[in-house]
Specification:
Layout: H1 2-16, E1 32-35, H2 40-48, E2 56-62, E3 71-80, E4 83-94, E5 102-112, E6 118-127, E7 130-139, E8 146-151, E9 155-157, E10 163-172, E11 196-204
Antiparallel strand pairs: 1-2, 1-9, 2-5, 3-4, 3-11, 5-6, 6-7, 8-10, 10-11
Length: about 200
């Protein structure tokens, strides 16, 4: 477990230290989030370290320099057949005025083969100044035989006081409801009808 966590932190460090190319904002003075697409070099590094990209969901957050957002909290909401049954994580960071306003948020899940239907979940906030990480084990009530991953596309504004959906790991048996992920949680009701949905969420406060 420690080896896997170390490998993940090495990759996140490489991503966080990468020169910040200009992120075109939708409008001036907006805080923006988008899913992060790894470069070929980063993918090669990940492969050499024996890690799989399919287990990771990475997002780039660019906060406006004058934002009134004071903290960011990431969590994973677990839905089963339309109902919220559990919440994983709840990792938060404080936004300081003099800090680098570009962050990378990473979600990772790893099946624990020694414990049936149990996943290890890592949530990591990072930037050039360091990282904050939380790790949780969650046992899925029963086994599934199908899975997929969906995430938002494009750039989206981070709004203070509003929780947004970023992506979802979906589990099912024999058939699944596959739909696009939308930032507003209430717009994803069709997706929640699946057997298990692990919804990746971010809330700005």
């Amino acid at each position: 477990m420690r080896k896997i966590t170390y490998i993940l932190l090495v990759v996140i460090f490489l991503v966080s230290c990468k020169k910040d190319e200009t992120l075109i904002l939708i409008k001036e003075k907006k805080s923006i989030l988008e899913n992060y697409k790894m470069t070929k070099s980063e993918m090669n590094t990940l492969n050499m370290l024996g890690e799989s990209r399919e287990k990771l969901a990475i997002y780039k957050l660019k906060l406006d320099d004058y934002t009134d957002i004071q903290s960011l909290e990431a969590k994973i909401k677990v839905y089963s057949k339309g109902k919220l049954v559990h919440t994983i994580g709840g990792i938060a960071i404080t936004i300081l005025k003099d800090n680098d306003k570009t962050y990378y948020l990473t979600f990772k899940r790893q099946l624990q083969h020694e414990t049936k239907n149990t996943y290890e979940w890592d949530i990591i906030f990072s930037n050039r100044n360091g990282h904050s990480m939380g790790q949780t084990l969650y046992k899925q009530p029963d086994q599934t035989n199908m899975s997929l991953f969906e995430q938002i596309e494009g750039k989206h504004e981070i709004v203070k006081g509003k929780e947004m959906a970023l992506g979802a790991f979906v589990e099912g048996n024999d058939s699944m409801e596959s739909v696009s992920i939308l930032p507003d949680l209430k717009d994803n009701e069709r997706l929640f009808k699946n057997k298990y949905v692990y919804l990746l969420c971010l809330e700005a406060k």
